[in-house]
Amino acid sequence: MASGTVRLEITGPIAVITNDNPEKKNAFDDAMDLALFEALAELQQSPDVRAVIWRGNGSSFSTGRDVAAIGGEPKVPLSHHELMTRGHRGVRPLLELDAPILVALQGWAIGGSFQRALLCDIRVASDDARFVLPELKYGVIPDTGGVGRLFQMCGHGVVSDMVLTGRPMGADEALHHGVVSRVVPADRLDDTVQEMAEHIVALPAVVVKMARRVIRHLAEPDVRSSMEDELIAQTFINRSDDIAEFRAARAEDRSPRYTGS
User: Fold this and answer.
1) Percent of the chain topping pLDDT 90
2) What is the pLDDT of residue 80?
3) Which among 86, 116, 215, 260 would be 20 to 30 A from 41, CA to CA?
4) Share of the chain above pLDDT 70, in %
5) Distance (Å, rounded) from C-alpha 62 to C-alpha 115?
6) pLDDT tier at 71 (50, 70, 90 boundaries)?
């Protein structure tokens, strides 16, 4: 079976990024990460694009990282720290594109894919959407910058609950906290986001650009600071005694003995 990919289509002033791995609910492997980074880099060189839609084929936006790909041989000889740095560099255009990014979220949005969606301008959810940050059970922390944005939306308590327990947030709760701005029936999701993009591109380009500049200056410093902290913390965790014990206990099918170091 062919692996999934990320497709970029540009039609006039609107670009559409599509997560296209529906057999795995759009779970990302390294190849899909690189395809996304290439699509975002291309959009940085596309000044005529005035709005970007990001969507997923099939029943879910993305279930995050393809668990089957975790622990496999890396395709490039990079350290854990270098891989994280590459990942941050690859998604930085989400914060820097001149065109606003509207995300259509259906089904599951999990882990890094949920975090990446949080870095975008607008999120619209179908009524079956569910959002999860399950990283801690895999021995890592959320490390894509989205927790900083989620903290701005939901506050300390809700973010701590989601990160520490890994519990899902449904579409209605996400709307209540401002994580998404609209909830629509699943069969209206793509049309709704398309209509929103068409409305934006019909506005004077300069007013969209300046309005987004003001909003971004309010939100981005804390998000970028959070990403720097995540890079340091994740690198430390990867080399920690507890994570070595976490892996050993799983391999030996026994209870772990953690020391907090």
Assistant:
1) 89
2) 72
3) 215
4) 94
5) 11
6) very low
Classify each residue of 86-105 as buried b or exposed e, where b means 16 or more C-beta atoms within 10 Å of its C-beta: ebbebbbbbbebebbbbbbb
Sequence-ordered alpha helix ranges (H) in 45-110: 80-91, 93-96
Structure tokens at 84: 């994280």
Q: Tokens at residue 102, please?
A: 């509207």
Please state, in angstroms and as integers, the Cα–Cα distance from residue 185 to each residue in 18, 106, 128, 192, 243, following that order: 19, 10, 8, 10, 42
Give the whole-angstrom CA distance, residue 232 versus residue 251.
27
Q: What is the pTM of this model?
A: 0.92
> Which token pair is 188?
């209206």
Name the architecture of domain 5-205: Alpha-Beta Complex (3.90)
| Local structure of 25: helix, strand or coil | coil
The owner of tokens 């939901």 is 154
Tell me how far apart the alpha carbons of residues 240 and 242 are, in angstroms, rounded to a whole number.
5
Task: Report which DSSP code applies to 138.
Answer: G
Tell me, rounded to whole angstroms, the distance of Cα 135 from its chain centroid. 13
The pLDDT, as a whole number, for residue 78 is 66
C-beta of residue 30 within 8 angstroms of C-beta of residue 3: no
From the list 224, 208, 134, 126, the residue with the least C-alpha distance to 171 is 126
Q: How far is CA 125 from the centre of its chain?
A: 14
Q: Which two tokens stand for residue 70?
A: 């975790």
